Every structure is written in structure tokens, then in C-alpha cells.
Amino acid sequence: MTNDVALIDRFLEMMAAESGASPNTLAAYRSDLSQASEFLGRQMSGADRDMMKKFPQLWGDLTNSTVSRKASALRRFFGFLLEEGFRDDDPSDALPRPSSSRSLPKILSHSEIAKLFEAIENTGDDETISPKNARLSAIVELLYGSGLRASELIALPRKAIVVDKPFLIISGKGGKERLVPISDRARQAVARWKVHVDTDEKFLFPSRKGHISRIRLYQMIKDLAVQAGINPTKISPHVLRHAFATHLLEGGADLRALQTLLGHSDISTTQIYTHVDGARLVELVNRRHPLANRNLAR
């Protein structure tokens, strides 16, 4: 075992224990750090500033956001080595700091959301809805109606949502818990689906190996988009979460409340949704400002 491998393992153990990093985050850090270690001949933990300056050669074809992510992983790793006494200096200030702008989220219009539900609806009544459509209805209601992340939705226990409780407690990124309101529509949709789920099942959306996978969830949403006549490249489970946030903001939701509903630790993450609300804000100023109804012409 190389020194780099051992120290990367210890760093990831710290991330899991102290920061509550998710398995996906830990896997991403391991991949970035292992790649950097290989590039430096497995001597990364002892690298100096000159060696840090070589990374643009490795990252030359990557986007600014990807370079920023990889550089951030290295900075955290070297900060850990310094704090734990494995080094007495931190060479990571020599890493590139590309300018990056957060991309705007993909959004769906109200009419496109309506088309998704129309594609799900069966011509019969609620009692005759097919199991496939009942599951799709429950999934879309929870993604769009409550803003759940894909990882949160697929891991929902079968007993998580009950008819007489309008909320559930979600353990999201980093193990942070938040209260998620569940609409009447979503609870009714889940109730229709649960009759098709064996009472011995652990998960609300089970599969032979536990619960449905994120990949399978993505496939289901893409297939639904095709049925609804929507370009499948426009939609994903996360786009439905974006639509939840965007449409709440359009309806007058407070940004702080939206931050809580989405489970964002930093409100700057939530503020990205304000870009879609420009037209409403202009209309608000024109209608509500004290000078809006005054004729200033002489």
C-alpha cells in the first residue's frame, strides 16, 4: 500500500465521520484524489508547489467547473494533512483557480408539467389505474410536488408516507434532516401505489435488489417525457425538483422557506432560482410600487 493510498483512506474516513459526506461524495473525492496521485507518480502527499503547478497539464481539456471541483478536493486533502500533522506546509495555494459561473437550472413550464400528468392518467377511475401508472404518478407527485432528490425518493421506506400525515422527515445530503410537506395529491397518489406493494417490502419503490436504482428512475422519467411529447433531453428527476422550486418562487414563496424545503445549507444555492422570476418581479414593481399609479407627466 502506498502512502498516498493510506492517507486518502484516512482523509475519506474523516470526511465521512466529521462532515457526514454521502457515499457519492466520498466516491467522487476518491476518484479525483486517486487520479491526481497517479499523475504525480503516487507521490502526491509529499508534493510541493511546483508539482501543484503541473495539474493544468492533466486538466487542460476539462471544464472550469470540473477543474474547480478537482482542485477543491486537493485543497481539502492537503488541509487535512496539515491539520493532522502529516505535513508542516500546504502547497495547494499553487493549484489553478479557474473562474466559474454556476449554470442556470433547466426548467419546465406549467404546461409541460401538465402534459406529464396527462400522459400518466388512465382513462378509467382511480380504482382501475394500472400499477405502472400508479407508480409513475406517485413518483412524479413526490419529485415535482415535494422537491425530493432522486436519491431521497428511491430510498423512501414503504411506511414513510401515510394518509393522515402531511409531511415526512428526510435525511438528505450529509445526513441533514429536514421536514418535507407532502401534498394531498401526493399522499393520494402514494396510497394508490401502495396497494400494489407487498406489506413485507422495506421500500416504497422496491425492486428485486432492494429499491429501484437512480438509473431506472431516470429511464422512467425519460420514457414518460416521450409519451408526453416532451424532448427527453429536457427532463430528469432533478429537473422536476428544479420545477418544484421555480414554480413555488413564481407563486410567491419566500426564498428562505424555499431553502428549507430544498435542504440547501447555503442560500446562495437557492438564489439561482431567482433568475426565472424576473418577469414577475418587474410586474410586481409596476403594480405595487407607490409611484406605479401616479401620473408624473406635467
Question: In a nutshell, what does this entry contain?
Answer:
The chain is 53% helix and 5% strand. The protein has helices at residues 3-19, 23-39, 49-52, 55-59, 64-83, 110-120, 131-146, 150-154, 184-194, 214-227, 237-250, 255-262, 267-270, 278-288, and strands at residues 167-171, 177-181, 206-207, 210-211. The mean pLDDT is 82.
CATH superfamily of the largest domain: Intergrase catalytic core
Architecture (CATH level 2) name of the largest domain: Orthogonal Bundle
Task: Write down the overall mean pLDDT.
Answer: 82
Tell me the number of structural domains.
Answer: 2
Please describe the biggest sheet, giving its number of strands, its sense, and whether it closes into a barrel: 2 strands, antiparallel
Largest sheet strand order? 1-2
- Percent helix range: 40-55%
- Strand-and-helix sequence, N→C? HHHHHHHHEEHEEHHHHH
Distance between the termini: 84 Å
Low-confidence stretches: none
General form: globular
Number of strands: 4
Count of helix runs: 14
Strand fraction equals under 5%
- Name of the CATH class of the largest domain: Mainly Alpha
| Helix and strand composition category | mainly alpha
CATH structural fold name of the largest domain: hpI Integrase, Chain A
Evaluate the radius of gyration.
Answer: 24 Å
Structural notes for this entry:
The protein is mainly alpha-helical and 298 residues long. It folds into 2 domains: 3-94, Tyrosine recombinase, N-terminal domain (DNA polymerase, domain 1), CATH 1.10.150; 112-233, Intergrase catalytic core (hpI Integrase, Chain A, Orthogonal Bundle). Helices cover 53% and strands 5% of the residues. The chain has helices at residues 3-19, 23-39, 49-52, 55-59, 64-83, 110-120, 131-146, 150-154, 184-194, 214-227, 237-250, 255-262, 267-270, 278-288; strands at 167-171, 177-181, 206-207, 210-211.
